[in-house]
Amino acid sequence: MSLLAVEQLRVAYGRIRAVQGLDLRVDEGEAVCLIGANGAGKTTTLKALAGLLPAQGAIQFDGHRLGGRPAHEIARLGLTLVPEGRGIFPRMTVLENLQMGAYARRDRHAVKDDLEQVFSLLPRLAERKTQKAGLFSGGEQQMLALGRALMSQPRLLMLDEPSMGLAPVMVQTVFGIIGQIIARGVSLLLVEQNARLALKVCQRGYVLEHGAATLSGPATELAADPAVQAAYLGEV
């Protein structure tokens, strides 16, 4: 059984149908990406799954039906979103931001262990744990957002445009970290404008157009598809 199974997801902004009957799944330990042009419905899909937008359709996560559940309850089930723009708390220190990721947890000893694991994965955060997060560069803030999400012990980590606004060298650094997170067995649903990187780091993908999936399959097959190459990979 899939960790996340979505059938006929529909989301509208007034009369605008942003997502129109989307089916998708993410299996345990799998990394899946959503690629497509701006306005294709990728971010809307993640927000709907996280409970931040009202939606229609069937959403099952780890055996739980998510329809109508509030966002905080969905997060407690282990479905964690790192939003576009990162959403860190700029006036808090790095350590305080990370602790906020574990706000719903009561297993203090395990939280301490997870904090050490995050610092091991992201040593720059350990070096600057007492500094205000608002002083960080965009790439460092993205690292902090990833670390904070890991502190919630996600069953499925959803990332929305993690490379947005980052310098090329920092994009490679961030995607290296994402690769390490996947290697640790965390399931991933990735929305990313850089389709080449998304298809490289994920096992499967969906191509969204006008709120619906027009193609899906193994990432290697999508990367080799002439239509995907022409539209999203800059190849003819």
Low-confidence stretches: none
Helix/strand/pairing category: alpha/beta
Computed over alpha carbons, the radius of gyration is 17 Å
CATH class: Alpha Beta
Give the amount of beta strand, in percent.
25-35%
Going by CATH, the architecture would be: 3-Layer(aba) Sandwich
Helix content: 25-40%
The ordered string of helix (H) and strand (E) elements is EEEHEEHEHHHHEHEHEEHH
Considering the protein shown, what is the CATH homologous superfamily? Answer: P-loop containing nucleotide triphosphate hydrolases
Q: Examine the coordinates and then state which fold CATH places here, giving the name of the CATH topology.
A: Rossmann fold
Shape: globular
Oligomer: single chain
Q: Tell me the number of strands.
A: 10
Give average pLDDT, whole number: 94
For the record, give the distance between the C-alpha atoms at the N and C termini, rounded to a whole number: 38 Å
